[in-house]
Predict the 3D structure of the following.
Amino acid sequence: MSRIRVLVSGGAGFIGSHLVDRLVADGFEVTVLDDLSTGKIENLQCHLGNGCLCFVEGDVRDAKTVCEAVKGVDAVFHLAAVTSVPFSVAHPDVAFGVNVEGTRNVLDACVKNGVERFVFVSSCAVYGEPVYLPVDEKHPLSPVSPYGLSKLKAEQLCRDYFERFGLKTTVFRPFNVYGFRQRRDGYAGVIARFVERLRSGLPPVIYGDGSQTRDFIYVKDLVEAFVKALFCEASVNGVFNVGSGFPVSINELAEMLIALFGVDGVKPLHADEREGDIKHSYADVKLMRQCLGVKPAVSLKNGLLEVLNDS
């Protein structure tokens, strides 16, 4: 029996490379399309040359490159995106070009090449400021940043291609994903930024008063949901939150990391709130559990310990 062939756009990035690890381990034949603007080829190094991975350097805004990369695959995981809220505020044209037009290019290529399954990684940012908690998939969609709006428009494209062409699409809305290989620059997630500061002997910087809450999901738990969706007919044309289902304040997160580093005397610094940031958010994950049979397995403390051990 031939191996299932999949394309992972953005596969050299943080989440994408963990997905590639899982797919290769499960026996898939994997092609990665990535422009390496934020992803790193080092994230895929252990797979290069083993016959299971083909790497294509290219931009999802280049329709010709995308179409070539999609040829011969059975399924596509589309993760290539501008993922930073602050970057999207500063460069909305780039965010919409990559996240909307890039997604359209990948969907077009799937239809032209007869791809059966398309898994799109959206974001909880499509909800905007929650009007009730926990946030379920029927929550009103009112993004407050160019990033969130671009992801919402890309979701609408997925639904449109399912209805018009029968492409079997599934949309995931991850909450705050963390883990090894997460970028550590100015656009990094809060956990990666806190870890980088503490490793450098500096206190974490919290934007706002720190009472804002987030739902943190370990990257390998997220990947589990992606892979399960590929074989779940009930997930077709579905939308799924992926999170832990529990809120954690940024102050609590800082305290936890300070304790894990063993530097109890350190106090976080506070800076002004950032444009586009929401106050409180955590996921209702009943649909993920009921339809996909996925329950997050890694607690926040254990996940943070893994990040510290792997960094």
Remarks:
- The longest strand covers residues 168-174.
- Residues 240 and 288 are 6 Å apart (CA to CA).
- The longest helix spans residues 92-112.
